């Protein structure tokens, strides 16, 4: 049986855990214009960052990438990550555990 959630019903901001007890960890990120998330990392995770609305300046290990609605970014969670909204933005972020080598 699938689990289905409406992103619009998740009220926590800026982060809402879509499926709190399930893997892969799935987060809805909602930022106001000029709102940012402090630099951080997610060691041992692969990240898929799908921007649903808006425009984000995504800093990864000091490099800046412009992400616009409809874009999907994939990167290693060991990198330092610091998203900043250039306009009101909503992203769906999947943090999958990396497989052991």
TrEMBL record:
Transmembrane segments: none annotated. Residues 30-79 form the Cupin type-2 domain. Gene3D superfamilies: Jelly Rolls (2.60.120.10). InterPro entries: Cupin_2 (IPR013096), RmlC-like_jellyroll (IPR014710), RmlC_Cupin_sf (IPR011051). It holds the Pfam family Cupin_2. Residues 1-20 are annotated as: Disordered. This is Cupin domain-containing protein.
